Amino acid sequence: MNNKEFIKLKNSLAIKCITKIILYSIITILILELFIDGIYNDTLARDVAGFDENIYYWCVANKDILIRVSYSMILIIISFLVIRKSNDNMIEIISAMDKIMKNAEQEVKLSNDLIILENRLNSIRVDLVKNKHKAEEELQKKNDLIMYMAHDLKTPLTSVIGYLTLLTEEKEINNVMREKFLKIALDKSIRLEELTNQFFEITRYNLQEMPINKKKIDLSVLIGQLTDEFFPMTQEKHLKFIINTDEHVYFHGDGDKLARAFGNLIKNAINYSYDNTNIEINVSKKQDKICISFKNNGEKIPEYKLDKIFDKFYRVDESRASNTGGTGLGLAITKEIIELHDGKINVKNNDEYIEFDIEFNSII
């Protein structure tokens, strides 16, 4: 509920409360006037005089004072009853909030005086239900991924144990076969390390607790270092980096976190590039902005997948192929790291290329 709605509700309740007090007081006073000064005036006077003449004469002498006191008492009693009734609204609101906490699926119903608040509470209730379902869905995805990866860990581990067992037990293996078995065992060990790292990434994922230590860094140098690190991966698919960068693009940020974000984008580009193609990286300064893009030639991503590409645990590669299957966290982590640096990231693609564009606002 925004300020205007809250003030409107508060004023509405106050006006209704005052109106009830005034209206009920006038009605009560008119009724008393009718019965005491009208219909039962003589009867009441005779009864009081018959009971005690001194009291009768005192009442007659102080009639104006008695009337004022009576009216004041009536006003106080009616005000008390109306305010107590208004407090019931507070109890009704608290009960409705408890109801939402216990069962957000059930619609909230309030009295007519609180119709504005009823609408707002139901809106909050709907948001709670959506967030609850989203959290349950993410937890299920996370649990599924952990289960899948725990299963996947067995495959390379079994191979490593199998080939090392052959090398240990078979004494007459020739050098060619020995080198082949060692190469397979090494490849499977590397894959096992990747899966283990991904497993820890899933179980520890919580960017809100990640400290951001900002300092002056040169993004051109950082990109150059990262591409050197990924050089062995590009060789397998005969890929080539084409880097276009302005000289010394300085930025105030966390170098380790940005390296992780850019590294995820480079790895993504390598995994989803056609063989024998180029990966183009552009870094430039434009007035008060820094623009970075990662572009590769690859299969077009459908629009419905493109909309979800930065969602946690979402993977474009639904087949879970061993060479490209990740945790579905890489791009989600990248997006949050960029946003923690007050930046923006977008993705676009067509039949020829996939491109991720990053924009930062601050330049040193």
Please give the structural blueprint.
Elements: H1 3-39, H2 41-51, H3 53-61, H4 63-102, H5 115-169, H6 175-204, E1 215-218, H7 219-229, H8 231-237, E2 240-245, E3 250-253, H9 255-271, E4 278-286, E5 289-296, H10 303-306, H11 330-340, E6 344-349, E7 354-360
Parallel strand pairs: 2-4
Antiparallel strand pairs: 1-3, 4-5, 5-7, 6-7
Helix pairs in contact: 1-2, 1-4, 2-3, 5-6, 7-9, 9-11
Structure overview:
Helix content is 64%, strand content 12%. The protein is built from 11 helices and 7 strands. It has helices at 3-39, 41-51, 53-61, 63-102, 115-169, 175-204, 219-229, 231-237, 255-271, 303-306, 330-340; strands at residues 215-218, 240-245, 250-253, 278-286, 289-296, 344-349, 354-360. A 5-stranded mixed sheet has the order 2-4-5-7-6, with helices on one face. A two-stranded antiparallel sheet has the order 1-3. Strand 4 (278-286) and strand 5 form a beta hairpin. Residues 319-324 have low confidence and may be disordered.
Keywords:
5-stranded mixed sheet, single chain, 11 helices, 364 residues, 3 domains, Helix Hairpins, alpha+beta, two-stranded antiparallel sheet, Heat Shock Protein 90, 7 strands, elongated
Summarize the model shown.
This protein is an alpha+beta fold.
Radius of gyration: 38 Å
CATH architecture classification of the largest domain: 2-Layer Sandwich
- How many distinct folded domains? 3
* Strand elements, count: 7
| CATH homologous superfamily descriptor of the largest domain | Histidine kinase-like ATPase, C-terminal domain
Count of separate DSSP helical elements: 11
Q: What general outline do the C-alpha atoms trace?
A: elongated
Kindly provide the name of the CATH class of the largest domain.
Answer: Alpha Beta
Mean pLDDT across all amino acids: 80
What low-confidence regions span 5 or more consecutive residues with pLDDT below 50? Answer: 319-324
